[in-house]
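User: Once you have settled down, look closely at the record that follows, taking as long as you need, and be ready to discuss the fold:
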Amino acid sequence: MSTHGTSRVMVAIGASRILGLVREILLNTFLGAGRELDALIAAFRIPNLLRDLFAEGALSTAFVTTFSQKLAKEGKESAFRLASNVNTLLFVVLFLIVAAGIIFADPLVRLLNPGFAVVPGKIELTIELTRILFPFILFLSSAAVYMGLLNSLHHFGLPAAASAVFNFVSIGVGVLLAWLLDPTFGQRSVYGFAIGVLVGGLAQWLVMIPRAISLGYRPRWLIVWNDPGLKQVLRLLGPASVGAAAVQVNVMINGFFASYLENGSVTCLNNAFRLIQLPIGLFGVAVATVTLPHLARHAALNDTIALRDRLLVGLRQTIFLTLPAAIGLFLLAEPIIASIYQYGRFTSGSTALTALALRGYSLGLVSYACMKVVAPAFSAIDRPGIPLRVSLLGIFLNLTLNYLLIRVYNLGILGLTLTTASVATLNIIQLAWASHRYVGSFREPEFLRALGKILLSCLILAGVLLLGMVFIHPLSGPLLVRIAGTLALVTLGIATYFLTARWLKLPDLALLLRKGSRD
C-alpha cells in the first residue's frame, strides 16, 4: 500500500474534519441546541442521504472500480471518455432530482420528521431550509466523479483536501451571511448558514476541475448508452448505493424517532455523530480511498492473493487507529463534549445528553470504519449484491431495535445510538464472513498476531485513562481548567497507546512513522 498516499489523504481529511467540527461548534454556539439548529440539521440530512446514494459513497466506488480497470486494460483515452459519459448522465439525472426535491420538500420533510409538527414553526422552517439545501447533492455528486478520477490516477491529496475547501468556504460564507441577515445571530441567521453550506459544496466541485484538466481530462457533453464502462458503473451503482448509504439511512431513521424526543435531541445526536465521523473519516476513509484502486487493479488481473493481502493490511491499519479512538471517546465523552461545544447557548444539560449519545455511537466506531474498507472490495470483485443484502437487513434491524429501545424500553437518545452501533457491528461481521469466502482466509498468522497486540495496547490504554481520571477532573473547574484537563487526558492516552505499540513492535506504527518521514 502506498504509505505516502495514505498519509496525504489522512492529513487532508483530518483538516476537513477539524474544519467541519469548527463549523459545528459555531452553529452550536450561535444557535444552541434548539429549534433552529434542529431544523437545519434535519434539512441537511435529506441531501446528505442522497450524497451517499449518488455521490461520495456509491458513485465513487462504482466509478473508481470501473475507471481503474479501464486504465489498466484500455488506457487513459478510454477512461476519460467514461468520465465524460458519467458526468453528463449524472448532471441530467440529478438536475431532475433536485427540481423534484424542491417542489416536494413539504411532504418529504413532514414524512421524515413528523415530531417537529408539535413545535410551532419548526416544520415550516425545516421545509424552507430543505429547499435551499437540495442543490447540494448536484454539486457533491459532480465533485465525486472528479474525486474518483484523480484518485484512480493516484492523485489523492487534492480530492481529500477538497472537503476541507467545502468546510472552509461554508464557514466563511455562512458566518458572513448569518451576520448580514441578523447581527445578533438570532432566528434569521440560520438561513445564512444554510446558504454557506450550499456555496461550500459548489467550491468543493470546482476546485478539482483544473487538476483533472492538467492531467489530460477534457470535460465534454457525452452520453453513449452502449458504452460497456457506463453499463458497468450503472450495474455497480445500484447495489452499491444501498450498501454505501446504510449508515445515512439509519441516521435518517434515527432522526425520525429523535423528532419525537425533547427539543435539541436532533442537535445532540448530530454533535455526537460528528465526533464519531472524525476518526472514521481520518482513518477508515483515508485507508479505503487508497486501497480501492489497488483492489480494482488486482481484481482486473485476477491476482486474488494480492487482493486479499491488500484488504488485510487496510483492515489492520483501520483497527489499529480506530479502536483506541473508540475507547478514548467512550471514557472521556463528557469532558470532550464540554471542551468542544459548551459555549454560548449550548448548556451543560446539552453536554450531558450529547455525551450519552457519543458513548453509544463509540461502541460501533470500529465497525463503521472497517465497513468503509471492506464494503467497496465487493465492487472490485464484482459481487456488489453482498453489501446490498447486508445493508437491507441492517436497515430492517435498525427499525426494529429503535422501536423496541425507544417505544418499549424508553431509552431515549441512548437507545438510538446503541441501535446504530449494534447494526454496524452486525453488518461488518456479515461482510467479513463473505470476504472470507470470496477473497480468502483472514486467518493469516501475521494479521492475527497484529490484532492481539492491538487489543493488548488498548487494554493498557483503558487502564491508564481510568487511572488518570482519578487525579484529573476536567469538569470541576472553569473553562481553561476544563480544556487543559481534557487535553492532558487525551495526550496521556495517545502517548500510552503509541509507546505500547512501539514496545510491542506493531507494524502499523512503523508505517505511520515512515509516512511522517516521507511527507
Q: What stands out?
A: The mean pLDDT is 84. The chain has two domains: 3-442, 443-514. The chain has 23 helices and no strands.
